[in-house]
Amino acid sequence: MQKTWIGLLLLPMFFWQLANAQKGCVIRMQGEVRSTAGTPLTDVVIRLDSDRATTTDRLGHFVFNKMCAGSYQVAASHLGYHGKELSLSLSKDTTLVFELLPDAIHLQDVEIIGQQQGSLSSSVHRLSAQELQESRGKTLAESLTAISGVSTIGMGNSIVKPVINGLHSNRILIMNNGIRQEGQQWGVEHAPEIDPFLADRLEVVKGAQGVRYGADALGGVVLVLPKTIDTSKPFSGELDLHGRSNGRGGVVNGAFEGGIDKIPQLGWRLQASAKKLGDYETPHYVVGNTGVEELNYSAALDYKRDKNSFALFYSHFGTTLGIFTGAHIGTVADIEARIQNGRPFETYDFTYKIGAPRQKVSHDLAKATWKYKFNADRSLDVQYAYQRNHRREYDVRRVESDDLPMADMVLSTQSLDVVLKEGNSSIGIQSLAQINNNTPGTGTTPIIPNFDSYSLGLFAIHQFHIGRLHAEAGGRYDFKYLDVAGYRYRRDAVNEDGSIQQYLLTATRRFHNASGTVGVLYHFSPQWSLKSNIGLAWRAPSANELYSDGVHHGSATYELGDQNLRSEKGLKWMSSLIRSSSRMQFTADVYAQLLYDYIYAQPNPDSVRQTIRGTFPLFVYQQHDALFYGVDLRFSYQLWKDFQYDINASLLRARNLSQHTYLPYIPADRLQHGISWKMFGQDQQHSYLKVAHRFVAKQSRYEPNSDYASPPPAYHLIDLVAAKQFQLNEAHQLNLLLSVDNVFNTEYKDYMDRLRYFTHQMGRNINLKISYHF
């Protein structure tokens, strides 16, 4: 394995040496493409006669090497802009500059078609530069809540995962640098193992995206996209230092990148971040054992030569997370008393120590990609990735050491994707192989068994463009094979010592299904556009939904699966009305999704499970048809020259159609809005003052007596942000940001928090963020 990696690392050097062995044509033609406003344009197609083409990088730069003297036709084209063409007589190294005039009628298409992010008719939302700056240092899920229709579910303030239009976990795909993130994402308290500092762009694609991204994309897709490596400088980068009052800790991050003069097509990047936080505090008490320790790092190499592009990427994510001690309870009477009290009986002192119960998770990802451009309209992408997710969950033990995990799971995933793109069409094949092993010696029965899983998918997508109307259609077929083996409890028989007998469970399941999508995008005018998309997606039940029968130590719950569960199938329609002008941005997403055989964990307040480890709330997996529908609004308006008002609102309804009841754990209606003052004028977009208000309503649409505690009351929170950007010189920049979350230290609970039975959410939190770019 080591020799293989050494060989991959040396591969770009081999191609460079091979290219330099060719003598003759040595002229270099480079250039820059920008808009008439001076903004560098990324992914502009530069055609050289008819047989050579390239695209611009993040800075708008392009280059052609080893050219011969002679006459050429050079053309620059980019969706959303008028193209340009010129004749050139080449006799020496030459630098060109293209300035493209915006073509307003297509500006709404640029983000999707120009960057080939996927469906042109789906609702795509990206964090703005200001939102991305404010979210630095937060978890991935917390960062995404700035997008309407996105909320969180989890345990307390340390362990959260994204929710899109009411769906989460295995119904949301997270694409980490083009790779499906594959961990133990089935758990509500299993946060995505991704360092947000890797991302230059964070995007959410709403709607059923099963055709392009595969099974499990029922609710949508989260895209974590790193920036293109800047090879124009030998060394550049950024340093980030973030401190926060609640938790009395912070985050440090460093990223460095550059090019090599002797190998101009080779780019490199190194990045690392670390986080340390102690117990978080509500307005009136410390929540014991809720600290966080994190260490992450990554490396990347990019190499381009003529029609070939190679990329290597590796990242490591490692975290230790404390779980509130008061959620692990000894008796039935104790759990009832704590839920009734709504806050801990104990008083905790602040500490950085993370004891049991806790999680220790590491995730390693390595990928290699090769892209070959036959010409400007046809390319072949090949991508291989390996992931290793190691999850250990610790609980308080009565006899053994607390350093011995109660659950020790290693999930290994290999994937291979091959996609051929030609013009407006794409066809591809995607394969995935997974092996989950429970490490023996924990002294407990694993909540999920060992399993092997194999998947294969074939898809095709075509886009049509007729004037102001754009349309697309796609189809896909997936097959999945699951083979499990593990010990389960036999509840109708006990051993002589009173313990429950176990038996060896072995089973195989096969799942297959077709997916499809049809959508349109129509421009009424340069300002008004309409998108409408209907998609069919599906997912097979996960191993925990089928076979769990035991204490989930990470969430302090007892989970019981159902071996007879069928695949979920979802049909989602979404339409988006978009208004874009110099002063106003408006998007309204209206959607409805019918989920056949929807799988969910229903809390059972009539029963708890007592084990040798304590007493735990019981959650039982069920399956019924369900309907989700709602609306997401996003509105931004420039009130005066330097004042801007922004508002996001989300309303969601969900029903169990089989039983004519409400579904549990559905986000309540929410609103967040704020006013920003660019105190130094529009030329300093990152220098501003902002006051924001967050409102979350009480979830009134739930079934009485169906949960251990009724949904908490509505709450209002006020946040403040002050940011200032200092341009030290042409290449060096310093950003300062001071923010206060929950200014008035409001005590509240959130319905989507599994710890709401026992404790409140975080109180006031003061953040200081310093970022230095060079």
Automatic annotation (TrEMBL):
It holds the Pfam family Plug. GO terms for cellular component: cell outer membrane. Keywords: Cell outer membrane, Membrane, Receptor, Signal, TonB box, Transmembrane, Transmembrane beta strand, Transport. It comes from the Bacteria. It is found in: Cell outer membrane. The keyword RNA-binding does not apply. Belongs to the TonB-dependent receptor family. Residues 318-743 form the TonB-dependent receptor-like beta-barrel domain. PANTHER family: HEMOGLOBIN AND HEMOGLOBIN-HAPTOGLOBIN-BINDING PROTEIN 1-RELATED, TONB-DEPENDENT OUTER MEMBRANE RECEPTOR. It is a multi-pass membrane protein. One of its GO terms (biological process) is siderophore transmembrane transport. It comes from Sphingobacterium deserti. This is TonB-dependent receptor. GO terms for molecular function: siderophore uptake transmembrane transporter activity. Gene3D superfamilies: Carboxypeptidase-like, regulatory domain (2.60.40.1120), TonB-dependent receptor, beta-barrel domain (2.40.170.20), TonB-dependent receptor, plug domain (2.170.130.10). InterPro entries: Beta-barrel_TonB, Beta-barrel_TonB_sf, CarboxyPept-like_regulatory, Plug_dom, Plug_dom_sf, TonB-dep_rcpt-like. Residues 120-221 form the TonB-dependent receptor plug domain.
